[in-house]
Design brief:
This protein has 2 domains: 127 residues, Rossmann fold (3-Layer(aba) Sandwich); 136 residues, Tumour Suppressor Smad4, CATH 2.60.200.30. It has 5 helices and 17 strands. The longest helix is centred in the first third of the chain and has 15 residues. It is 16% helix and 37% strand. The strands form 3 sheets. The protein has a 6-stranded antiparallel sheet with strand order 7-6-17-14-9-10, with helices on one face. The chain is α+β, with helices and mostly antiparallel strands.
Length: 286
């Protein structure tokens, strides 16, 4: 089996975790290829590939870092479909469920084929009047907001060609079920089980008490039109890829034609994860 590695070296414990991975690969005679942005830090390793070439040349990608590392890895994998194993070197880690201490048992379980694949939907964005975005996909969310300008926007939402609502707000989040525990949760949106086929439209600081988040079928076609009084707005994918929008510009958002694949193990439970990360059932300190 051939593993690829993507890692955020700025995270505490990254070097030790990578070294443990390399030692395990050497002992087990397993092929290991690193993303080439690690070349300067791990010069002793001989096999590197550019990030966009890694997915089609390995069987499994190990992504070490926080959720941002996983989001970037999922976009890099794209339609290739290479499964991703997330190792949490961050603090929250909704997507990186395994800890560094669980790395070696997880790798052993993968070799023994004792794991399952969890598929997650992505969103795709298209901007009217522009060519295809170089990276149009988002695993968590697509956010339309006012960027650096502190002004409300008028954002019209159409669903399957039907006019639904014009938000007066700081912005609008279109989230996947996976992203329901990210920015969507922070603005009061619902938590949606990641295996559901759905999208969430959650306004950011709406100028109306009756404007609430909506859950929309996953096969819907959403069309957003932003009105900015000649100021530019910003479209951001997974908080990492940003595109400026002009007044009256339209954005179409739909379900991507492929899904991201994540490696999970029998002990992994989404509801257990929620209890742990959100501290459900924990009594407050007196």
């Amino acid at each position: 089996m051939h593993f690829g590695l993507i890692a955020n070296l700025k995270r505490v414990g990254a070097d030790e975790t990578i070294n443990a991975f390399v030692d395990w690969a050497n002992k087990n005679g397993t092929e290991l290829t690193f993303c080439d942005d690690l070349k300067d830090s791990i010069a002793a390793h001989k096999r590197f590939l550019p990030r966009h070439e890694l997915p089609q040349n390995v069987d499994i990608i190990v992504a070490m870092g926080g959720d941002g590392t996983i989001l970037a890895a999922a976009r890099s994998v794209g339609s290739v479909g290479t499964p991703i194993l997330g190792i949490n070197l961050g603090s929250l880690g909704f997507l990186t469920q395994q800890t560094p201490s669980q790395l070696i048992p997880a790798l052993d379980a993968i070799i023994a084929r004792e794991y399952r694949i969890d598929e997650r939907m992505l969103l795709k964005a298209e901007i009217a009047g522009q060519g295809p975005l170089p990276m149009p996909y988002a695993l968590n969310d697509i956010v339309l907001d006012n960027g650096p300008v502190s002004r409300v926007l008028d954002i019209n939402l159409r669903i399957n060609g039907e006019d639904v609502v014009t938000y007066i707000a700081d912005g609008l989040i279109i989230a996947t079920p996976t992203g329901s525990t990210a920015y969507n949760l922070a603005v009061g949106g619902p938590i949606v089980s990641p295996n559901m086929d759905a999208m969430i439209a959650a306004p950011i600081a709406p100028f109306s008490l009756t404007t609430r988040p909506m859950i929309i079928p996953g096969d819907a076609m959403l069309e957003l039109t932003v009105f900015t009084d000649e100021h530019k707005a910003m479209l951001t994918l997974d908080g990492q890829v940003g595109v400026e929008l002009l007044d009256s510009q339209k954005v179409t958002i739909s379900r991507a034609e492929f899904k991201s694949k994540f490696i999970l193990f029998p002990e992994n439970s989404y509801y257990k994860l929620l209890r742990s990360k959100l501290h459900w059932g924990v009594r407050p300190n007196p």
